[in-house]
Amino acid sequence: WYNSSLQMARIARAGGYPYYHFLQPNLHMLKGKPLSHEEKSKLDSGKQFGDRVRVGYPMLQKLGQRLEAAGVQFFDLSSVFGASSETLAADDCCHFNRKGDGIIAEVVGRVIVQSWR
Fold this sequence. Notes:
- The longest helix is centred in the middle third of the chain and has 23 residues, at 47-69.
- This protein is 56% helix and 7% strand.
- It is globular.
- By secondary structure, the protein is mainly alpha-helical.
- The mean pLDDT is 93.
């Protein structure tokens, strides 16, 4: 994950293109978002993912900091939903509904547009 991101950034840079690495939010590691009743039930049914995510995400976040230190434009979106209490999860793993995807897309778009200015 880390090495492939570094390689993609190098390839993009060599071609004169920007490269962005976004760590998407995950139902099992949302920062600051109160879970809706529906999301809590999805969390319960997705326990097989939860342990892996709770162990893996902090590792990805640390590696993301290393990517930033290496010059990669890395963005941790795990807190992108803020304090929204709306249901944004589409399943018990890692996919979001149209509203959740829209929030993520808006943030990604804003980051890219701001970096071009």
